[in-house]
Each structure stands twice: as structure tokens, then as C-alpha cells.
Amino acid sequence: MASAMWATVLQRSTRGFHAFTRTTPAFSSPFQCRAHRLSPGEDEMYQRTSVSIMKKEPGAGVMIHSCSPKGFTIDDNKVFGPCAVLPPAILQWNVGSHKDISEESVSLFHLLEPRIEILILGTGARVERINPKVLALLRSKGISVEVQDTANACATFNFLISERRLVAAALIPPSVTRALEVQEN
């Protein structure tokens, strides 16, 4: 290949082009140039996509599949109203709104063994402010608290449980929103 390339360069140089003194081919290695292209067979290999269906592993913990103003679907179980998700248990949580979250209502979470690392608080349709005394109590017990709207709290809980973290969730169903309704005067 080098001799063929050199002959081409010499031929062009007799027609008025400058002589090119490089004796090695311009593209000696496919990895040293940007113009390298994979052959169609190799290229097809890189374009293929495979899909593997993720199955729930045994002992992976509970997963929250949906939330609505009525309640939650947790591992194909319908839970109505506020709930405390303490893997592997799902309990009714006796609060009506974020205003009812008190030191007494979160006492369940710091009595657990093994001790949870993170408590996810879902406060309904919006992120609501929680009593600072409640947050201070949980932090003094070594529990991190994440306060979010309920939809994001469910997603965060699922993510952390999939990482096999010691996590619990206290969830209040989101209220029915009327923000998009048209009001007639």
C-alpha cells in the first residue's frame, strides 16, 4: 500500500504538485485517525438495543406503584388514606393533614429496629412546612428527614428502597386539585 501511495504522490508531483516526502500511508492505523468507520457488520452490532424486563427480586422491599387522592397502591395492595410504609409493613397513619404531624405521630418511626436511616414525608399535593420540633426530634434520634410533595416522596422512597437503604415513608394522599377548573362568573 505504501508503494502504491508513493507512486500516486510522485505522479501528481510531475504535474506541478509539490512532492510529498511521507513514505508511510496517511492512515496506518484505524485508531489514529478520525475518519475511521466501522464496517457495516460491526456498526450494526453497536446499534442494536436489547431490553431486559426487570423483575422484582425476592426481598427487594415494597414498591409504591401509584398515589391518588383516595390513597396508594403498594405492591398490588390498595391503601386508603394516610399511611406509614415501614418495609415490609404498611400501616394506616392517623393524621389528617400536614398540620397533624406531631412528635407523637412520628414516634413510631424512631422506635423501629433496625433503625431507619431516612424518613420520607409526603405532605400531599404540595410541599408543606413541618413543625421544627418534629424535625429536631427525628434528627436527634439519628433519622434524616426528607419533606416532599407526595408524588415525589413516593418516587424517592422507591429509589431508596431499590438501593436497599433502610428507609420508611409517611405519606398523606394528595388532595384533589381544582386549579385547572374553569370558573364561570
Task: Describe the protein's architecture and organization.
- This protein has 185 residues and is an alpha/beta fold.
- Helix content is 25%, strand content 19%.
- It contains 5 helices and 8 strands; from the N terminus they run H-H-E-E-E-E-E-H-E-H-E-H-E.
- The strands form 2 sheets. Strands 5-4-8-6-7 form a 5-stranded mixed sheet, sandwiched between helices.
- The longest helix is centred in the first third of the chain and has 13 residues, at 2-14.
- The model is unreliable at 1-14 and 49-55 (pLDDT under 50).
Topology:
Blueprint: H1 2-14, H2 40-47, E1 64-67, E2 71-74, E3 77-80, E4 83-86, E5 89-92, H3 107-110, E6 118-122, H4 132-140, E7 144-148, H5 150-162, E8 167-171
Parallel strand pairs: 6-7, 6-8
Antiparallel strand pairs: 1-2, 2-3, 4-5, 4-8
Question: What key attributes describe this structure?
Answer:
three-stranded antiparallel β-sheet, 25% helix, 185 residues, disordered N terminus, 8 strands, five-stranded mixed β-sheet, 5 helices
